[in-house]
Write a structure and sequence with these properties.
The structure is a single chain. The chain has 161 residues and is mostly helical. It has one domain. It contains six helices and no strands. The two termini are 34 Å apart.
Length: 161
């Protein structure tokens, strides 16, 4: 006779789900680190880390952006739709989900960079790269960049695929 309800104890299911959440959060943070490396490569003439460290407001903005990024990633990992229908290792190490996460992150990053450059060219009287003159301006720029990463990672984690 087939059983109705949970076959594994509830605490085992919670531990498996927690392992997947932690793994997705770690993968997302790795992707965010790669995104920050892309930001460094796209704007090599702005010493982000040095300028942010020169002003406590800029440092605070960086920390705030980081917390928003982490919050969005954790929320996305927790609310990511998954069904426990595969073996435990297949559920935790779901390479299809990881692939969709990576691809959607890269596509979103490329779209964001393209739109940034289009807006930069359409507004020639607003010198985007002049932000390097002020540590607070650099802090605000990096804050926005971190929130952007958090949003695209959250969207990738909670996407319908």
């Amino acid at each position: 006779m087939q059983e109705l309800g949970l076959v594994a104890p509830y605490w085992v299911i919670v531990l498996i789900w927690l392992a997947k959440v932690i793994l997705l959060a770690l993968i997302s943070m790795f992707l965010a680190w790669l995104g920050i490396r892309v930001m460094d490569a796209l704007t090599p003439h702005i010493p982000h880390r040095q300028r942010i460290g020169e002003d406590p407001v800029a440092t605070g903005l960086f920390i705030a952006g980081f917390f928003i990024l982490v919050g969005l990633v954790i929320h996305g990992a927790i609310t990511a739709l998954t069904a426990v229908v595969a073996p435990i290792l297949g559920y935790i190490f779901d390479f299809r989900t990881w692939g969709v996460l990576a691809i959607s992150f890269v596509v979103s990053l490329l779209i964001g960079i393209a739109i940034f450059h289009i807006v930069d060219r359409l507004t020639p009287k607003i010198p985007f790269m002049s932000i390097s003159k002020s540590p607070v301006a650099v802090g605000i720029y990096v804050f926005g960049y971190l929130v952007f990463f958090g949003l695209i990672l959250h969207a990738a984690l909670t996407g319908p695929l």
